[in-house]
């Protein structure tokens, strides 16, 4: 049959095709893989979870070693006690974390995402449970396609029950960082406060939803780091890369077979089925790649089977691929100005923060003049002002502080000049200060309070205040 010819006055029909605005989600069935990178990933899983679940149970000086006690407004971190006035150190910690992230990303891509990110770690734990209960990839696919019978229902219930138990325990652990674990244990199960219950179930639900259901969707659509990571890479950043020059064109081959015209890639597709985000690394660098190394672990054994060298998929740089650099040359390119700058700044901030913590005085004093009574004349004719001193003992041992005042001729404290403050306590004391009427000018005069710990000369504070003369 001959094709229909259009006359010169006729125009071809325009065919409109609907394109969905949002791509329909397809569940990813990930195949388990064993290898060097997988082993390191599990090392980080055990390490991070040992810290998270173990720290609330660790004791230090008869208290919880790590506790952010919001009710008492004190942060305990082993031998360190921080108060709300120490929020400066929180800012330093955030700056250090940001610069460390920039440095590691510039050197080796998304290392944090692939090995230490909570989303990756918890997803790895949940997938391990799923594989133990429902079976490997093919069995899980068959189970999901099978009709709902007693076996399928029981397997799903067991899996979700295990997930929920872990999620609830994680929520309880999170709350234990803000309320002492010993108190939480005593309050279980029905005496927990509203906020403790809320955060336990909120975090558990968040954990359960993200690690059990959303998984790669968090990395692809919710995580902002996946979006701006591209501007942090450069041609000398180590990333997981497919060597297309060596691998293309793809085609099946056997060990020892000289398949002329074909590259080393046998087009087995294993690198796709092991990827947590379901991408094909052979299509080039993609923002969904979290740098976990699973594709490397599954590709290297395939290269062994066909007698080809490993490294068809490997950690390398764009420069190394284009210029065929050796391993030593790749390492040499890592020390570039950008990395040196990040490292110098990071080390400088860490040293400055450590020095500040090591030399800080474990005593804080706030001096507030009693504004309800500006100034008054005492029985002996002297002028007096009243002050409220808030003395914070940030050490974990009781202290006795000697109080004195200076700055005006004849100025002195009337009454008790020794204050006892218990360990990690905020103590408030009222102080009466008197001066001779001729020792100061009318209006505001500057004085200084000296608060010194007895038997600890280095623990002292020199605090400025204002004395009003009528």
> Any idea how many domains?
2
Please give the number of β-strands: 16
Strand content: 15-25%
Quote the distance from N terminus to C terminus.
114 Å
**Backbone shape:** elongated
What is the overall number of helices? 16
Indicate the radius of gyration in whole angstroms: 33 Å
Low-confidence stretches: none
Sheet with most strands:
5 strands, antiparallel
Roughly what percent helix?
Answer: 40-55%
Class inferred from helices and paired strands: alpha+beta
Oligomer: single chain
Average pLDDT confidence is 88
Which terms would index this structure?
single chain, 470 residues, alpha+beta, Immunoglobulin-like, 2 domains, 5-stranded antiparallel sheet, 4-stranded antiparallel sheet, 16 strands, elongated, electron transport, 4Fe-4S, 4Fe4S_Fe_S_CS, transmembrane helix, transmembrane
Task: Tell me what the structure shows.
The mean pLDDT is 88. It contains 16 helices and 16 strands. Strands 8, 9, 10, 12 and 14 form a five-stranded antiparallel β-sheet that branches. A four-stranded antiparallel β-sheet has the order 13-11-15-16, with no helix packed on it. Helix content is 41%, strand content 20%. The longest helix is centred in the middle third of the chain and has 27 residues, at 150-176. The chain has 470 residues and is α+β, with helices and mostly antiparallel strands. It is elongated and about 110 Å long. A hairpin with a 4-residue loop joins β3 (66-69) and β4 (74-77). It folds into two domains: 24-360, no CATH class; 363-469, Immunoglobulins (Immunoglobulin-like, Sandwich), CATH 2.60.40.
């Amino acid at each position: 049959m001959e094709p229909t010819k259009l006359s010169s006055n006729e125009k071809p029909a325009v065919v409109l095709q609907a394109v969905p605005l949002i791509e329909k989600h397809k569940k990813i069935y990930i195949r388990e893989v064993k290898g060097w990178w997988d082993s390191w990933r599990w090392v980080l899983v055990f390490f991070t979870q040992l810290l998270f679940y173990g720290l609330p149970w660790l004791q230090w000086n008869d208290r919880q070693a790590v506790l952010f006690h919001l009710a008492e407004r004190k942060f305990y971190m082993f031998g360190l006690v921080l108060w709300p006035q120490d929020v400066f150190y929180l800012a330093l910690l955030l700056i250090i974390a940001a610069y460390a992230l920039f440095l590691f990303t510039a050197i080796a891509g998304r290392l944090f995402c692939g090995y230490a990110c909570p989303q990756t770690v918890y997803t790895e734990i949940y997938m391990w449970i799923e594989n133990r209960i429902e079976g490997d990839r093919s069995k899980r696919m068959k189970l999901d396609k099978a009709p709902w019978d007693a076996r399928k229902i029981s397997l799903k219930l067991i899996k979700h029950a295990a997930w929920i138990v872990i999620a609830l325990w994680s929520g309880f652990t999170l709350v234990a960082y803000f309320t002492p674990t010993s108190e939480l244990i005593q309050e279980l199960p029905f005496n927990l406060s509203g906020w403790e219950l809320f955060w336990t179930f909120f975090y558990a639900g968040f954990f359960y939803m993200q690690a059990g259901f959303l998984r790669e969707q968090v990395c692809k659509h919710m995580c902002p780091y996946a979006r701006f990571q591209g501007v942090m890479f450069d041609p000398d950043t180590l990333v997981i890369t497919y060597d297309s020059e060596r691998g293309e064109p793809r085609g099946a081959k056997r060990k020892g077979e000289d398949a002329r015209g074909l590259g080393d890639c046998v087009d087995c597709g294993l690198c796709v089925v092991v990827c947590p985000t379901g991408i094909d690394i052979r299509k080039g660098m993609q923002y969904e790649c979290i740098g976990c190394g699973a594709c490397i672990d599954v590709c290297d054994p395939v290269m062994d089977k066909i007698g080809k060298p490993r490294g068809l998929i490997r950690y390398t740089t764009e420069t190394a691929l284009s210029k065929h650099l050796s391993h030593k040359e790749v390492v040499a390119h890592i020390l570039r100005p950008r990395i040196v700058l990040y490292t110098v700044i990071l080390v400088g901030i860490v040293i400055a923060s450590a020095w500040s913590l090591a030399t800080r005085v474990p005593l804080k004093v706030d001096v507030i003049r009693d504004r309800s009574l500006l100034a008054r004349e005492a029985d002996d004719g002297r002028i007096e002002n009243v002050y409220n001193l808030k003395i914070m003992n940030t050490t974990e041992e009781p202290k006795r502080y000697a109080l004195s005042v200076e700055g005006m001729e004849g100025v002195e404290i009337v009454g008790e000049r020794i204050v006892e403050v218990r360990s990690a306590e905020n103590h408030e004391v009222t102080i009466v200060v008197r001066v001779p009427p001729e020792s100061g000018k009318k209006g505001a005069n500057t004085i200084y309070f000296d608060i010194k710990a007895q038997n600890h000369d280095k623990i002292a504070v020199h605090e400025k205040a204002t004395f009003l003369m009528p």
